[in-house]
Design goal:
The structure holds 2 protein chains of 2 kinds. By secondary structure, chain A is mainly α. Chain A has one domain. Chain A is built from 8 helices and no strands. Chain A starts with a helix and ends with a helix. Chain B has one domain. Chain B is mostly helical. Chain B contains 6 helices and no strands. Classes of the chains: A mainly alpha, B mainly alpha. At the A-B interface, helix 6, helix 7 and helix 8 of A face helix 4 and helix 5 of B.
């Protein structure tokens, strides 16, 4: 069985399990909308003000809502000792990690794609003027959140205070990725194209994704098996 | 033997420190900064000690994953705890200096932000260890997290540098520096003294950790009978 097929089977299994209950996705969506509503009290929600902080606002929403999805990723395997079965399955830790990361990635992206238009409607912001560049930032930033979130989801699954530990560990780690994504999103929503100045943030996002995907693939076997 | 070396090192560190404090106290006020610059004689050594500690933590974490020898895990946790303490000293002394010279306690500058993220990451490491019960798992997870944390800090540092910086550039040991040579000498001695102090504290903490492990081991043996 090819590696890609193995990854795909793990992803399909995770998506099937999640879509049958929809517990993580529903919670994340409700949470995202709730934070968006709460932010309207934090500042004067006029279009110009909102555009200026849109990157920060959106990525805080994405990171918070994403954590809810990522928390469930490995916790879902705890009942009936499914995690032990998965680890014992004849696939490598890296395949397991990639499969789960891909499933999480699709779920988090789905939540973001709903939250983004909701943000646009509630705050009267035309974020779609540079649609494809925004999507590019979304794709890169979300992979950063997902890859860190998945590896730490595996790390925290069996420990006390799991729900608290995951964001405590991931948010400081995500600082460079979130910062790049926030800067780029703010620029794009304000109508500035990606120029030489902001290209450096794009490079940062790409290198963050590459470095942490590589380190995670290297260490995931250690985390899962010991 | 190990104890004697430790005590010796500790006493030596205190002697150098006492001599340095005496010298620093007698320095005249600096032209632009008045007396506030004197805190730098502790700020920079604290960061040197913190840097040494977290690098030790990285090396011993990798060593633990390779050898599975718990001696390395104990060293990693001892070094990280001392590292967090010295990062706190660095943050606090820097903040006091900033209040006097800049008029503000804090600014979101490259060094300050990355230092704060460093503190958050290693505080997270200590909390992660507290949350894991099983010793092998605790050591493994700690080591993995330590590696992740160490990679993150340079990335944070360089990324924030791209858009704002306020922290002064080095004045000691650099060609653009304007500090008199005898001040630089005291700074060097103070770095040596405080790094030595950090080494002693790590060693003491390491012994505590080893004793704790021995007690746990004996307790398990007692339960086995």
């Amino acid at each position: 069985m090819g590696l890609i097929r193995q990854v795909f089977i793990i992803t399909a299994k995770d998506l099937r399990a999640e879509l049958r209950t929809k517990e993580a996705v529903n919670a994340a969506l409700a949470f995202a909308v709730m934070i968006l509503v709460l932010f309207s009290f934090a500042f004067d929600p006029e279009e110009a003000t909102t555009q200026m902080i849109s990157g920060g606002l959106l990525w805080i929403v994405f990171a918070f809502a994403g954590t809810l999805v990522l928390n469930r990723s490995f916790a879902r395997e705890l009942p009936n000792d499914c995690l032990d079965a998965l680890v014992a399955a004849p696939v490598s830790g890296a395949v397991l990690f990639l499969g789960k990361a891909l499933a999480n990635y699709l779920l988090v992206t789905a939540v973001e794609l709903v939250a983004l238009p909701v943000f646009g409607i509630l705050y009267n912001v035309r974020w779609y003027r540079q649609f494809w560049p925004v999507m590019l930032v979304l794709v890169l930033g979300t992979w950063g959140i997902t890859v860190i979130g998945t590896i730490f989801s595996a790390l925290t699954v069996n420990i006390r205070l799991r729900e608290v530990m995951l964001p405590m560990l991931t948010y400081p780690m995500l600082v460079p990725a979130l910062m790049g994504a926030m800067r780029l999103t703010t620029d794009l929503v304000q109508g500035k194209p990606i120029d030489d100045d902001s290209a450096v943030w794009l490079k940062l996002l790409v290198s963050f994704d590459v470095v942490y995907t590589a380190v995670s693939l290297l260490l995931v076997e250690t985390v899962l098996v010991g | 033997m190990r104890d004697k070396i430790l005590y010796g090192l500790g006493v030596l560190a205190f002697l150098i420190l006492a001599r340095d404090i005496y010298a620093i106290a007698r320095f005249p006020a600096e032209a632009n900064q008045g007396y506030a610059f004197k805190i730098l004689f502790f700020h920079l050594p604290a960061w040197a000690a913190a840097g040494t500690a977290v690098t030790t933590a990285l090396v011993t974490s990798v060593m633990f994953l390779v050898t599975k020898n718990f001696k390395y895990d104990a060293t990693a946790v001892a070094a990280t705890e001392v590292g967090v303490a010295f990062i706190s000293v660095g943050l606090v002394t820097g903040s006091i200096w900033g209040r006097v010279i800049w008029g503000i306690w804090w600014t979101w500058d490259a060094r300050l932000t990355s230092a704060l993220v460093l503190w958050l990451l290693y505080a997270g490491y200590l909390m992660l260890r507290h949350a894991v019960e099983e010793p092998t798992q605790r050591a493994t997870f700690g080591a993995v997290f330590s590696i992740f944390a160490f990679i993150d800090v340079p990335i944070v540092y360089f990324s924030i540098r791209w858009w704002r910086t306020q922290h002064p550039s080095p004045v000691f040991f650099s060609s653009t520096g304007s500090f008199p040579p005898d001040w630089s000498a005291v700074m060097l001695w103070n770095i040596l003294a405080i790094v030595m102090l950090a080494v002693v504290i790590v060693a003491v903490r390491l012994r505590q950790e080893e004793t704790q492990r021995e007690i746990d081991h004996l307790r398990r043996l007692a339960h086995a009978f």
